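Troubleshooting: if your tokenizer reports a length mismatch, compare against these two reference records.
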Amino acid sequence: MLAPLRESEGFDPARDLLVLVDDVALDVGRFRLRGAGSAGGHNGLKSIEGALRRQDYARLRIGVGPRPMDYDDLADFVLDGFTKEERRVLDALLDPMAEAVECWLDEGIERAMNRFNR
């Protein structure tokens, strides 16, 4: 899926790619922008890094964690549905996250991180 982009003339993941990703290290209701970094054990990011053969692309990390004790497998937790309260909290994030994406598009990752990361 990303391999054709990688081969596209002028495509620069550091400038042109923003990946939205779940993050158990952030509480539900929080999000953070990041300009680059490792996959940190996240299978989706590992797949992207494998296709791109690099780690310098922006991410919008959306909090879904931490994993409750009644889940043995992290994958089961992140693939499970949200509670009504979690859904309400996440729905409230849609507008601020959309603003963060627009800021990234218009002004770049550094400006977006400075404005939206708390």
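Reference record two:
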Amino acid sequence: MFVIPLVLGLLNTSASPQVQPTPIVFAAAAQGDGRSTHLLALGGAQIEVDVHLAQSDLAVEDVVSWVQRSAQAVASYYGRFPVSHARVIVTQSLDGGQSIHGTTWGNIEGVQGLTRIRIGKNVAKSDLTNDWTMTHELVHMALTSLPDENHWLEEGLATYVEPLARAQDGQLSPSEVWKEMLDGMQTGEPAFGDRGLDQTHTWGRTYWGGARFSLVADVEIRKATANRKSLKDALRAIVGAGATIDTERPLITVLRIGDRATGTTVLEDLYAGWRDKPVTVDLDHIWSELGVQQGQHGITFDDSAPLANIRRSMTEPSLASGTNH
């Protein structure tokens, strides 16, 4: 094995104030058989990136840059990378297609957060540029490991935060964010026999039901505080309290941390109402209030809508306070 230290310059010189531009240092360790290891210094964290893509046409630099972009989006949203020591392992999947699949665990193999990503042999650089999976997986590191019945919040938050974090870091346009929201949120609607988020573990209710909870919580916190606080402030407080993926805490404890940070009881109140019974959300009303419209030519925005300022602040670049006005 040999090690080649490489300095790739400044990280995202347009980064938000709380995530200062930091030199990324790659220590590339070639291990043979298409394997290499790289160290990223980013957002106050050390992220080890292990790449093993012997049968792929992707350049290793493209893969590491993909991890860097995703980690930077997460660090920008949370004000720092959620854990101080993480590892990302990127390997080839058995299929020959363009699939990208990921799983993330806490407190395993000597690191606080470990993400394993499997990509198809035909995945191209453009697929990585447009990918959401890596960011989704790294967002998981920002929340404590919850009991099985609360898995919906783990997946729901990752589903909700991912496009917002990428938009706030300049990687997605607002129209792309809201198109994803409009397309996906309807999937989280309660179906016949639904018994609430803690009792109904279908794919739609776990991922998009949890995302609906996150959307409603974000809007309600912003309304209650005249847009001075948001769900992001709650989530940053949860990370600041050390309730990250390498820990295990009860959900109600985590929600109380978030509510204290926003000076509201939105999270606890929503959970009390949604945990054991189905709750239907009037999404059309939310989109109308935010001024989001799906037209013949794509997403358009109504800046005269009652909550248009809230909508804009949800995708604008992050500020040190966590909320834009």
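Descriptive notes for reference record two:
- The radius of gyration is 20 Å.
- The chain is about 40% helix and 20% strand.
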